[in-house]
């Protein structure tokens, strides 16, 4: 079974940037999700295994970019213009399915999560 290891979270001021990484043990369609305290886990971005297609939540479109380096089996989430409402634990997830990559239920394997905190 694929294993996922996330890194790159931290504390940043509003307007700043962070890049999250998710190293996988195999090549899958990948997604990033986040969960803020007291809220449900929500979709952030996804990318197909080839990198040919990517998808974003409206709340991050234009600010976040998902990409992948298949030589390293690593997926990245570049987060720019961060806002306090982006504060959450960010999770990467993997799936062999190619439909509805925005849905949590489509993903079989999850990383341990990495905290992102955006201060005013």
Q: Which descriptors apply to this entry?
A:
single chain, 120 residues, mainly beta, 7-stranded mixed beta sheet, 4-stranded antiparallel beta sheet, 11 strands, 0% helix
Report the sheet with the most strands, covering strand number, pairing sense and barrel closure: 7 strands, mixed
Radius of gyration over C-alpha positions, nearest whole angstrom: 13 Å
What is the CA-CA span between the terminal residues? 40 Å
Shape: globular
Q: How much β-strand is present in the residues?
A: over 45%
- Helix coverage percent of residues? under 10%
| Count of DSSP-assigned helices | 0
Task: Pick out the low-confidence regions.
Answer: none
**Nearest-integer average pLDDT:** 96
Characterize the quaternary organization of these chains.
Answer: single chain
Count the E strands. Answer: 11
Order of helices and strands: EEEEEEEEEEE
> In terms of structural class, how would the helical and strand content be classed?
mainly beta
